[in-house]
């Protein structure tokens, strides 16, 4: 991969990069489309990164679909599929970790200790290998995007991170590889996450700005759905620092993580109060 990249760069080609864990869906393919529009060469990586899964998490059963993925990427005319294996990325004796302090411990980081160290480390390694001009990430994983942006600035890495909107199913559910875990009944129930975010965002922009009440209503709405087994978090956050807000400010991140049955799903909406008023 590094030799191929050197050749491309020598010929003056720009590289757009889409890092993924595979089981590709319309969310990933949206990133590939955008990368294709903006760069000479589009590289997609598929790597289910062991470093970002906790010991009790779903690393081993994470969906894998190499045949389907290859077909989808061929259809999108992605140029290069990079699929390193774990021993190649993290050989025995591998020691280096990247920790983007503070913001990595909030929201999902609080419930998944070490997760974002795994993410930042693998993304930094992939960037060094692929040397993209631009890399494409989904807003669905908002915290991931914020952490990678911070890592890029802090480590003076010359990569432009492009954040693309969340692609949703017709009913509003954010598309995710993990949706494959849902039973039919859970799939139906899972739309409550987006609906509660959207309803809360609409109340907010209509002028109801009592955060305590809105948060309570959001929790109630989510828990009314019997398939929801628990909420990790659901509330209002500063989109830059990821701190929970105690009062509404101009930019508000509405974010949720909850378990539908045994499946942990996340979603978010960004509300710009200046634009809405
Ligand atoms: P993953 O394979 O889950 O690690 O995701 C790879 C990239 O695709 C990340 O940047 C995600 O944020 C992005 N992504 C996943 N689902 C969606 C979606 N529904 N809409 C937009 N981007 C997404």
SSE blueprint:
Elements lengths: L1 H9 L4 E6 L5 H13 L2 E6 L19 H10 L4 E3 L3 H4 L17 H5 L3 H16 L3 E5 L3 H13 L5 E5 L19 H6 L1 H15 L5 H14 L3 E10 L13 E10 L2 E10 H4 L1
Parallel strand pairs: 1-2, 1-4, 2-3, 4-5
Antiparallel strand pairs: 6-7, 7-8
Helix pairs in contact: 6-7, 9-10
The chain binds adenosine monophosphate (AMP).
Offer a quick outline of the entry:
α9 (191-205) runs antiparallel to α10 (211-224). β7 (251-260) and β8 form a beta hairpin. The protein is globular, with a radius of gyration of 19 Å.
Task: Please tell me about this protein's structure.
- Strand 2, helix 3 and strand 3 (80-82) form a beta-alpha-beta unit.
- It is built from 11 helices and 8 strands.
- The longest helix is centred in the middle third of the chain and has 16 residues, at 115-130.
- The protein is of the alpha/beta class and 277 residues long.
- The mean pLDDT is 97.
- 35% of the residues are buried.
- It has a 5-stranded parallel β-sheet with strand order 3-2-1-4-5, with helices on both faces. A 3-stranded antiparallel β-sheet has the order 6-7-8.
- It is 39% helix and 20% strand.
- Helix 6 packs across helix 7.
- The site of adenosine monophosphate (AMP) has 17 residues, from helix 2 and strand 4.
